[in-house]
Structure formats: C-alpha cells, structure tokens
Amino acid sequence: MTAESPFPPGFFDRSDTSGDERFYVQPRLVTHIDDAAIAAVGELYEELGLQGRVLDLMSSWVSHFRTPPAELVVLGMNDAELAANDAAAQRVVHDLNATPVLPFGDDEFDAVTCCASVDYLIRPVEVFTEVARVLRPGGTFLCTFSNRCFPTKAIRGWLMTDDEGHCRIVATYFLASGAFDPPVVDVRIPPGRGTDPLYAVYATAA
Ligand SMILES: C[S@@+](CC[C@H](N)C(=O)[O-])C[C@H]1O[C@@H](n2cnc3c(N)ncnc32)[C@H](O)[C@@H]1O
After folding, report:
1. Is the CB of residue 76 below 6 angstroms from any atom belonging to ligand 1?
2. Fewest C-beta atoms under 10 Å: which of 36, 58, 187, 190?
3. Which residue has its alpha carbon closest to ligand 1 atom 10?
4. How far away, in angstroms, is 30 Cα from ligand 1 center?
5. Are the C-beta atoms of residues 109 and 92 closer than 8 Å to each other?
6. Ligand 1 contact, 63 CB (< 6 A)
7. In the predicted model, what is the mean pLDDT of residues 43-65?
C-alpha cells in the first residue's frame, strides 16, 4: 500500500493478461446472475428512479430495466451482444481497460449503471472519475454485483476477498475518485436465500 493509493501492489493484476478483446470476441448471450438477482437489479433501478438518458457500462444483451429509460446507451466489448440489446438506443464498443476515457461529453447522462462487471476494471478510479464527468451533477452511478465472475479476468484484489470486501472495494473506488457524494452500500439479496446474492454500491455525482 502506498501513500497515494489505497490499493496494495498487484491488486489490479489478472491471471489472463491478454487484451480484453480476445476474451470477449465470442458473444455470450447468457445471463450472468440468476432470475432473482436480475429482478432485484430492475427493482433497484426503478426505486432509484434511473430514467432519462442512461449509460449502461460493461453491457451485454440485457440491461435489466423493468421499463427501459427514454434513451439507453450501452457500452461493452462485444458488438453482437450489444446489437441484441433491444432496450438500447445507442451501442458503443469500447475497451475501458485500454482506454478509461469515456467517448461522451460532460454532463450527458442522468444515470450510469454497471452490472456484474466492476470486478474486471484494472483502472477503476479513472473510469469512476470519467463516469462522474459524463453524469449531470446529482446523477447516480450504480454498481451491482453478485458472487460470480470470470476468474481469469477479475482483478486479484477482488478474487482475494469476500462479498463484504467487494462492497468496500467499490465504495473505495467512489471515494478515491473524489467526484461523488459518499457511496451507499445496499445488500439487496443477502447470501443464504437460495438465490444469487445481490449487492449494490451507488453514489451521486458531486
Ligand atoms: C459478466 S458480463 C455482464 C454483462 C451485463 N452487464 C449483465 O449484467 O449481464 C461482463 C461484461 O463486461 C464487459 N467488459 C468486460 N471487460 C470490459 C472492458 N475492458 N471494457 C468494457 N467492457 C468490458 C463485457 O463486454 C461483458 O459484457
């Protein structure tokens, strides 16, 4: 751990060090969390009133909104997955690990979501800072996740800790960006309920 970084050396290493375009070249038209967890994500989107122009970061063919927002922009690695996302108005293939800068202008979005994917970011604080830039002031950035991942592509720091630790990691990303109000950690489905657990960490752009 250094004075500048809250993360120890090696925290963002991954066992598969090849470019993400290799891993994601093949479309995966599957769901990455179970139906109960998907329903919990949609319920939270509705509860938080995520509407208007919304960016779904690290997206695939489903974005989990009960009612799609007026304008949904999806950003991910695989064009066939994004093309199959019926809720999307705009689709952007963009590698956040190669280029954390988002290809959007300032204050363009009312909300940003990221489901089941934050564990793959190797430069998360840069990405979170960018999310704050493209969000209008007061707009919400919501990360949701369960307890599953592609282990070769998840960062070592994520693999080394438990679900509570994952919530702390994501909260630290928000805090380290210095661009959000204090984050909220919300256990939407606790473990041991017979479904995938579902965790949410979110904050509003300062
Ligand atoms: C486990 S899937 C989750 C997909 C979707 N968010 C969901 O809830 O079903 C991980 C997603 O992260 C995206 N992803 C992984 N690495 C990425 C990167 N470097 N830049 C942008 N997106 C990435 C992939 O395109 C993939 O769709």
Report:
1. yes
2. 190
3. 117
4. 12
5. no
6. no
7. 98
